[in-house]
Amino acid sequence: MKSKILALLVLVTLFSCKEEPKSDAVAAPVEEAPKDFEVKINVVAKKDDSFHLFYTEDGTINFTEQKSVWVEFKGNEAAQDIVFKLPEDVIPTHMRLDFGVNKQQEDIKMNSFEIDYMNGKIVANGAEFFSYFYPNEKCTKIDAEKSLIIPIKGGDVYTGPMFYPQVVLSEKIEALVKGK
Fold it and tell me: Does the residue 79 lie in any domain?
């Protein structure tokens, strides 16, 4: 009887201490598309400046400083990307773009406008930008043929060019969010 118990203990010890081969393969992490809205404009702006993107989430165009993103940049004779990253979990319904506070800023060449969200994009090249936004005519002129944004200067207080959203922009944003 003792020999049976001893044999059983030896077998249990041998099999319970068996080392399992370890797999070095690690499951590759799944790349998730960014869930944050990113708005990118490609422009030629020759003077140092700050551009400002306002957004709302309630379907209105009541823009406030609390729901806005500033981007400072160095002026350049060459085209450059200016990227506005909206705060996490913000899904805008409308956007307004203000093109600077530097009253020395020259005409701004709009090359492209792009919104990225998840795996989708809204893209407008050149003058297509003006089909998504309309200018505040008190402080902004445009030359659609040349895709130029022209600041109106004069008076004591300078207000840089600003653009309000066309209805089509909110429709496109809604479709982008729904993944259409």
Answer: yes
The model's pLDDT over 42-98, given as tens digits with 9 standing for 90+, comes to 999 999 999 999 999 999 999 999 999 999 999 999 999 999 999 999 999 999 999
d(CA 40, CA 73): 13
Q: What whole-number distance in Å separates Cα of residue 153 and Cα of residue 97?
A: 18
Say if residues 93 and 170 touch (Cβ distance below 8 Å): yes
Cα separation, 135 vs 48, in Å, equals: 22
Pairing of strands 80-85, 38-44: antiparallel
Measured CA angle at 55 (ends 51, 60), to 5 deg: 140
On whether the CB atoms of residues 141 and 135 are closer than 8 A, the answer is yes
* Residues in CB range of 145: below 8 A, 6 or more apart: 127
Structural domain total, the chain:
1
- Residue 143 within a domain: yes
Q: Using alpha carbons only, how large is the chain's radius of gyration in Å?
A: 28
- Number of other CB atoms surrounding residue 20 within 10 Å: 5
